[in-house]
Each structure stands twice: as C-alpha cells, then as structure tokens.
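Moderator note: this is an archived Q&A kept for reference. The question asked for a predicted structure of one protein chain; the sequence and the answer are reproduced below.
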Amino acid sequence: MLPKSQLNGVSGFSRRKLSSAILMALVSASAMTVAHAQENEAAAEGEGFEKIVITSGYRGSLISSLNDKRFGSNIQDGISAEDLGKFPDQNVAESLQRITGVSIDREDGEGQKVSIRGFGPDFNTSLYNNRILPSDDDGRSFSYDVIASELISGAEVYKTSQANQTEGGIGGTVNLTTAKPLDFEGFKGAASVKGVYDSLAESTNPYISALVSQNFNDKFGVLASFAYQQRDARKDEAYVDGYVESTVIFGDDPTGTASDEKYWRPQSAGQTYTQQDRERIGGTLALQWRPTDNLTVTLDTLYTRLKVEETATQLSRYFSAPLFNAEVDGNGTVVDFDRVAKPQISPGVYELWSDGVQNPTGQWNSVNLVSSDRDSTTKMFGLNLDWQLNDDMHLAFDAQSSSGRLRSPNNPAFTLANPTQTTTHFSLTGDTFNWSGTDAEFMGDKDSYMANNMYLTSDTADDEVTEAHLDFNWVLEDMGPIRALNAGLYYSDRSKTKKRYETPWTAVTVPFRGFFVNIPSEYLYTVSPSGGFLSDHDEGGFVNQWYSYDANAIIDYLMSDEVYSNAANKVAQLENNIANGSGEAENPTLEADTIAAMEAAQAVGFAPQLVDSKSWKVEEQNFAAYTSLDLDTEVAGMALTGNVGLRYIHTNLDSWGNGATFVGLLYDYTQSSATAVTQSGVDVHADNSYSELLPSLNLKLDINDEMVSRFAYSKTLTRPDIDDLSPSVSISNTSVNTQDFDNVDFTGYISGDNPELTPYTSQNYDLAFEWYYSDDSYAGVTVFYKRVQDWIVTSTFSDSLYDTYHDVMRNFERSSPLNADKGDATGTEFAWLHSFDSGFGAQFNYTYLDSTLDGLSKNSFNLVGFYENEGLQARLAYNWRDSYTQCGSCARSSQPIMVEAYGQVDASFSYDLNDNLTLTADVINLLGEDPRKYSIYESRFLSLADTGTRYSLGLRSRF
C-alpha cells in the first residue's frame, strides 16, 4: 500500500478514478523521466488502484508535466525529459523559457540566466535536487550554461511559496532534478553524439553524452552520466560605451561657442569581433542503497566545467569635447556630430597649438584587445536519507557541500591609438550607428600607432555552500480538515570571495601611456571578419578590417631597452608646443625622467597585482525553522486541499573589503591630459543580521474531474546581491583632456557597496483557474499581485575629495545601493496546450505584467507547434520577450542598460530509425535574430550583437 502521507493532496472527490494519475504524478516528481515507461508500468497494491502506462516522447513529457502541475499543492510548472538523458533542448535555460512566465537572458548566443514573472535572475532561487546552486559570478544568480542539459531529467518552476521551500525567490524557484538508479528496473543506458555547426564561426564541433543506470534488485543502484561539448563561437558587436552629459557646438566651426545646456552624448563607440573556443564537460554519479523497505540512502555528486578561451579585438573611437555640427533629438541625445582631426608632425608629436591658441582636441582611432577568458567549475556532494518511520510518520534529511569557482587570468585591456588626419563624423542610425571613413582611413598609417592604456586583469570568484535540511511529516487521523503536520529545520553557510588583480596603474600603465610610445609596425596584423562585420545590419557605416596585435608581444617590447628611444618624443612634443605658443616652460630633465619612469615600470612588471579596493569577501549564515499543516476537506461537495504554514528565517552576515584613497590628478602637460591616481585604503569589516517571518497559504479546489481553482498567499524575500554587501569603495581612474590645467573640468566616480542592506520583501497573491479537458490538453489563467518593499536602488550624490598634488578639492559623483523604494506588480498569465489525435499539437502561453517597479518586461509569450507520430517528432518554437532593464545603474554615469524586445525561433526534429536508434536535428535561432540594448530611450543605442545560428545533427541510442 502507498503510505497515507502520499495521499494527502487528493481526497474527497473521485479518489478511485484518480488514483492511477496520482501515482503517475508521484513517480514523475521523483524521477522526472518517462524513459521506457511502457516496460515499467506503475501498479499499486490494493483495491482501487489501476495500472497506468506513460507514453514516451515529447507528448509523454507533456503528460508528466501536466500531472505534476495538476496535483501539485502550489502553482507550478515543469519540464521533464523526453527520454532517459534527453532534455527537450540543448540548453536548460532555453527549455525553461517555454514555461509560462519564464524568460531568459542570453550570453554569446546561449541561454544563461532565468527571469520569472518579469523579475530578473537575482530575484529567483536556483536549486539542484532542492539544494542551493553556487554561482560563478559576483552575485547569487546561477548561470545555466555551465550544466549540460543531458545531465538533467527535469526542471520544476514554483511560482508560489510554501513553508518547506528554501526562501530567496520573489519571482520564483527553479529546481533542477536528476534521475536516480532505483527509479528504473535493471540496466538502462543512453548515448548520443552530435555535430554542431555555428553559422557565424563557420565551424562544426562535437557534442557527446552518455548515461548508464543499474538497479540491483531494488536494494542498491548506480547511475552515472557524462556530457562533453566543444564549440567554436563568434560574436560581432557594435556598441556605444555609455552616455555622458556635455556641452556641444551646433555650428560647423569647432572653435565656436558651446551650448549653454548639456546634452547626453556617446562617450565612445566601437566594433568588437570576438572568437571563442568553448569547452564544457560535466558528469553526475548517484549511488542508492535501500537496506530496508522503509529507508533509502542516496549519495550523489555533480561536476561541471565550462572553459571559454576568448580573443576579442576591437576598433573604437573615444569622443571628447568639442563636438561640432551637433544634432540633438527630443530626448536630449546627441545623435549626430563631427570631430576634428589631430594632425601628426612626427611619431608621438602632434599639432596641439597654433599661433598661441590651443587647438581643439583631435580624434583617435583605437584598436583594443579586451578579451575575458572564463574558467568556471561547479562541484556538489550530497547525502539524502528518506525514512518512512511507520505508516504515519516520514523523516527526510538532506545535506550538501558545493562550490562554484571562476578563474579568469591575465586578460588584456590594451589600447593602441592612431590619430585621424581628417575630420570624422558619427551618427546614431536607430538600429546601430554609422561612422565616416573607408577601411584604409580607419586603419591609417601602420607606423603611427601609439600606446595608450596597457594593462592586464585577472579575476577570481569562489562560492562555497554548506547546507542541511531536516523535514518531518506526520499524518494525522480524525483531525477534521487537518490531514498532516509538517515541520523542519534548515541551515546554510555560504561564503563568497571575489579578488581582482590588475597591472599597477600608476607604477606601470601611466609611464607607457599618453600617446608618445610608438609601437613598431611589425607588431600589427590585419583582422578581417569573414563575410564582413555585422553584415546583416551594415548600412555602409561599419569597417570590415582593422589592425590587431598580440598582447604578450607588446609587453615584451615595452619591457625592452628599445622602448627608451620613445622618451625623446615627449621632448619633441613639448618643444613643438612651445614653438607654437603654448607658453609652457622647457623641461631639461623630461627625457631622463621619462626613461626613469619606464625603468621603474619594468622593474614592477605587467603581472596583475591584487587590487584591495575591488576585492571582498562575504560570509552569510542562514537558519530557518518551519511548520505547516496539510488540509483536506470538502466545500459544497468539492474537494478543497492545500497547506498553511509559517517559516522563520534568521541571517547573520559578515563582510570584508577595503577602502580606496584619492591621491590626486597626475598632469601630462605634453598631451594636455590628466589621470586620477588612487591607492588602497584601510581594510574594513562590517556585520549585519536580520530576521523575518514568512507566512504562506496554498488552497486547491477541485471543481470537478477536469477543473481546478487555486488561491495562494505568501510573503517572500530576496536577499541583496552578494557583491552589493561588500564594504569596499572604488574610485575610478578617470582620464581628463583639458586645455587649461588651472581650471580643470573634472568629475570622478566613487562606487561603494552597502553591507547594511536588508532583503527585498514581497506580499504575494495568486488566483488561478485550470481546465484539464483531456490527458494531454489544458487551458489555464492565473492572476497575480506582488507588493514589494525595501526595493534596492542606487543613490548618487556629489562629493569632494582632496587632491594632494595640487592642494585643491576635486568633484566626484558617489553612488551606493540603498533600501529606498517600494512598488507593486500585477500580472496575468494565460496558458493553453492542445494535442490532436493526428499527432499534431500546439502550446501557447502569454504573460502580462503591469508594475511600478522599473525594469520588468511587460509582455512575453511562447508559441510551440509540435508533431509526434510513429517515431517521428518535430517541434517549432517561438519565444518573445518585451523590453526590460538588465541593470539599473551599470552603464556610464550610472545609467541603466536595457534590452530591446526580442523574439527567437528554435526548431527540433527526431526520427526513430529502430527501437534503439534515433536520428536528431536541432536549429537554434533559426531566423538569426540579434539582441539590441539601449539606455532609457531606444535612440540611446548601447549595443547590437550577432552570434549567428547553430545547427546540430546527431544520433542517439538507448539500450
């Protein structure tokens, strides 16, 4: 007999008729797989239970997910594997986006992070077998691209909360599940091999996976899975690096009078050509032991590693005053302007003065290396004890230790600059931008490239999680509507450490920057993206070839004695300035001083060193206790089931970081530029603690055999992002171009975090109606409301810091996060699934969100058509998401980064060649759509990226 505790969710209506469906839901919830279910008919012992057969394939997975949804105690959706080791999409995130109310962020053409009901990745909890997943970035949000989909057997998305669930997701909770060996009879296995073609990279690469499971007489079982993928990827991206407020000149004279009013103009613009070698390897191992019929012990492990080696070369122009021939749109955005040339006298010497008047600052073309490798490793070790103490009492214990690790070493941030010899033009086109000039004009004289910002960066992040659950269930007899008592304890200890390493700016970078070090032409080579750069969006304004170089070769040159010959360029520049009336005094030691600074820089070297002000550690301990009651009664002859509970949480927080001290502006009179110099400050420690009571209520009314109505209320929270809890303070090294050092128009930027932040909290209400009008067809509508308190916003205010070099105060903009806002979100979800007897079927879901909170997508929908009959499966899916804010204050001047509305078509196909072998084919981004970003207004363009279309063809076997 089934334990009574497993029957709590259904009582009072058609129990005999629904018993087999209940059992099916329980089986799918534990295994989330439908592989070879025809052979494994689930039969219950005792009167009133019927045999059930779960069909395999995509339709079978829909039936399994529908039953999970129908008989679940709260509002949830899910996806189950179509077969053993066969998740519906190549990427877990790309499968999750098919669920009502779920949308994703993409990175380099792959789904990466998940949003639920408009709330971004930081507002959702990501679990693996009900355990917190460590992340490889600075925050809490999990990057789903690190896990191969073949390692997953199912995914559950919970949109309402109940007391026994791990807190943290105002938007919702995603739980990835894996198969266990005792879920299957005897030996089972599956393997697949694919070739994946990337249209933009023009490369075909391998993708292999395998899974084997052995059940020894239901007493002991072993299951192991493995997946490997290598992929060459390419990305073409046009970008504007944020907007700054500035005066402009509306006339055609660059020396004319500037406007009284300031407008938002591009700070810089560029083209980035990125090539990647992406390698992902992962595996799972699960051991299960059932010493008695009532006790199951499970040990399981997860290992994944995603290694991305990246080469990114970039052509850019940095815009500084004066901008002339300017045009401004109705939003105050400078959409069109010209920049003057910077005439070159000789290498490292430019015409900065004429007849005692300083010339307008000229235009540079820069070629940059901005690569950022990613080496991400996730490990998890878990222990689970499932003990049915007797017919009425059940005890479960689960513990895990996991880690997420990121290493990104020695990434170049190098810039070589070449002055333009003609006036240049720039205009925003709406879609992207245009800038004037042929490829040859942009490339310029190969002998005239000068060193600018030259440094290396390294980043490390370590996320360590220890977690334990203890859950108790007691079935109660003769207690009226109360059918069971649940209680539990929860503990987690999470420690995240971020370290930032950079080539010392003042000691190493500054002695070589300033456009006086001429890089010999033999170090440069030509880059020419195959098929042209961003060819689908080129309106005649992009450049299709430019120069690039090897960062290590440039470092070798800068560390050689040969570089000293460039010191004479500084002297020549100063002499030219004086000869044309700059009024600057001669400096007889300038060349010697320059060489001495170079020698000192060489002694330090380019190896990145720890930057204390950009490094931090946060430790967080969470304790929770909960109790809840399972309810089961009748109202007007209709079954009413559900649960009511209360969860208490307490959090202790410790964080460590470092302040930063502003030293002053370092002037370079020869180039009319200045740089802000900073140094590490004092180590800082901060602590914080808070507690919350989180009530929840979930009710399900079975109106009849087909119709279900639900009501849910809960209070939920999302903790502040981990990187916002550091006490560190960072001061930007802002460069300044000026014509008058006695009156420098300087604004620096100070950014700091806030360890005293408290969680976002939300009062949530849901009302749903669901109609299951056949085993594989369904329609439903849900209305939800969230009232959010303690919304975290970035506050910016003016500050002044003392310049020790020049004995003056300098103006800074200081920003830090605060709990300072509140708002609400009201939404409606509609979902429909219909399967025809012919084998055709369709899915459609739509989510509408109306919110006073900034940055949430207002509309999103999915449309899927599928066919399955006699071994043939085909699926065409379209996903669309309205515009949303990716980050509220990440662009320059603390402006937001917003993503334009985006839709994508994916397709999949499979054909069973025989009982054990299947031919598969998939297409990701069939129409080649490209995501576009902007800031506040769509005319304020930020980026547009093309990653191409991916095609795969493969074979899959099961045995």
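Archived answer notes: Residues 524 and 549 are 5 Å apart (CA to CA).
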